[in-house]
Amino acid sequence: MKVVAIVLDTIRELVIRKTVIVFTGLITLVLLFFGLALRTDVANGLISSVSVFGLEGQASQDGISVNGPAGPAQIPIERFVRGAQVGTAFVLYPLGIFLSVFATASLVPRMLEKGTIDLLLAKPIRRPTLLLSRALGALVVAAANLLYLTCGLGVLLGLKTGIWNAGFVGSGLLMSLYFACLLAWIVLAGVLLRSTAISMMITAAVFFASLMVQPFHAHPDWLRLLGRGVARGAARATIETLYHALPATADFVVTTAGLIWQRSGIAWRPIAGSVVAAAAVLAVATGVFRKSDY
Asked: Reading across the β-sheet that carries 71-75, which strands appear in turn?
């Protein structure tokens, strides 16, 4: 019951500070904009043309005719829609993650403010329970809005094209899991530095660093440019440490596309590794919080 109370109090705080309202409002505007950008013309109960963000296609017996760089190409309607979903995900999902970070980065620093932390620690609540419940409240708010974004986009595409894709909704769950991995770093930065701005900057650094190390992890031959010996070994050790410690951003992107395309053989191991690493980061943050003097 204590956990539920803290989670609800966290959500209530975000509502009072208008964070949730602004977050949800921005996603609603995105959905409205997408609904206006996506146009379909129906003739005799069948789609005759589709237009989404300037990409236009005309229906034919073989699917959708799209004018590409190499000339007109016939694309099955289902593949056209899934391609639009992938493109939409690459454009809008980062926006959803950014809004989630912006909405939740202040929760831990505000909790550690003088007066607030004194009041919370005076209650019969264990410190790990307090911190983890606070993080859970942030995750609930962010995940609810991220699923609102993905489910809303999925419904709009389904209603306008007649093509329904469960993988698109699944990609929203995966995006929520990715934010949970970032949230662990937000919590750790908040506990160590007690600054909302610095927590956001560190989260951005984690995001870009994870993208930078992935190519070197996937293609270690690039390290030959450093020559041989200690420098090369140190660089490889650094890259591998960062790759396994940070969220596997690039792998999340590949897996998201795989879910939307409904491909088989998706590699879940990097995702599982990111979750384990995030749990370790959260454990470090909990340990620091438990031993700190406020």
From this structure: 38-43, 46-52, 55-60, 63-68, 71-75
Q: Does residue 35 contact residue 156 with C-beta atoms inside 8 Å?
A: yes
Do the beta carbons of residue 85 and residue 157 sit within 8 Å? yes
Torsion (CA) 263, 264, 267, 272 in degrees, nearest 10: 90
What confidence tens digit (pLDDT) does each residue in 166-202 have?
Answer: 888 888 899 999 999 999 999 999 999 999 999 999 9
Distances (CA, A) of 231 to 123, 214, 216: 52, 19, 15
Q: How many CB atoms lie within 10 A of CB 170?
A: 18
**Nearest partner of 125 among 134, 115, 138, judged by Cα:** 134
Residue in this structure with the two tokens 């959803």, named with its chain if needed: 96
The structural domains of the chain, with segments of one domain joined by +, span 2-17+77-291
pTM exceeds 0.90, yes or no: no
